[in-house]
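Journal club prep — side note

Before the paper discussion, L.F. wants everyone to see what a predicted structure for a comparable chain looks like in token form. Sequence:
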Amino acid sequence: MRYTAALLSVADIRASRRFYEELFGLEVYQDYGINVSFTCGLALQQDFAWLTGVPADSVMRRSHNLELCFETEELDGLLRELDRRPEIRRLGGVIEHAWGQRVVRLYDPDGHLIEVGEDMGLVVRRFLASGMTLEEVSGRMDVSLGDLKKLLDAQ
């Protein structure tokens, strides 16, 4: 068995597809009209109740029990793009987590919560550039040295 995708219920497949393509640069893998899947494993489904057989009134918006997570090396660029697009609703402002990663949360057109955070390797490199040792970064981020090296090697 293998994992294949996370599928989101959407009201307007065209609007949702455009949102994910334009804002996140996702590439379409398959397009079946009311179902679109992206190369990253995310899929969108219009008429979700029909597909699954659940009552239409049970398909919720903004349930706040799931979050799609993205990382970027260009968080400031994304923030500028969000400023130009006031129709995209945010959940608060930019926050910096205890481990040093800056993130912003926003909603897609159907109310699904999305987190976009700085690439974790970028966070490690920022700390190292500030003069911290790898051991100090490990303590600051509460991450093992092995995991920090994996983040740095992924670049």
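L.F.'s comment for the group: Strands lie at 6-10, 28-31, 35-38, 42-46, 67-72, 95-96, 102-107, 113-118. Keep this in mind when we get to the figures.
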